[in-house]
Amino acid sequence: MKADAEKRTAKVERKTRETRIAAVLNLDGTGKVSIACGIPFLEHMLELLGRHALWDLKLDARGDLEVDYHHTVEDIGLVLGTALDRALGRRRGIVRYGWSLVPMDDALCRVALDLGGRPFLVYRLATRKRKIRDFDIALVEEFFRAFTVQGRLNLHVEQLYGRGPHHALESVFKAVARALRAACALDPREKGIPSSKGRL
Q1: Where are the chain's structural domains?
Q2: DSSP 64-120
Q3: What would be the CATH architecture of the domain defined by 2-184?
Q4: pTM above 0.85, yes or no
Q5: Which terminus of the chain has a smaller tally of CB atoms within 10 A, N or C?
């Protein structure tokens, strides 16, 4: 694992007996995204995340999908969280906080986050549907939990209403993306670490 603090990029690889994942992340990109993980719905959501955060993101994941999607989904969250943390470096000069309110047809999602270094996830969905084809939507919470821990951020996600699970989760990923885009941005007035403690 390595990061380039000036370019705010990171390359991360993770290999276990269950998954093999490689990711390249550029926080200051233009939304160019290439995702291959063998789970079409998750690929679609991650494309939305990268595009609306304006990240350049390339991710290739191979997992034991014949067993379950869980290992692959969770480990992708771990890898992306690690990439975010590495790309942010010391987090000098960032805005730090971000929030968004994103509609997607009948669904509306509210997200607030803090890149302050302390992991915590609050995750609430209004939709009561459990699956999109063969994808268990409960795995999205596992993805964000892993992402939050490794990315060292406080993330609050609340899908306020909307019955259809596809639009509900699309509003979630877009709202997280927009909040990340705001929080990761460089603040021209902030010359140091955005904390009274002097570190994040």
Answers
A1: 2-184
A2: -TTT-SHHHHHHHHHHHHHHHHHHHTT-TTB--EEEEEEEETTEEEEEEEE-SS--E
A3: 2-Layer Sandwich (3.30)
A4: yes
A5: N
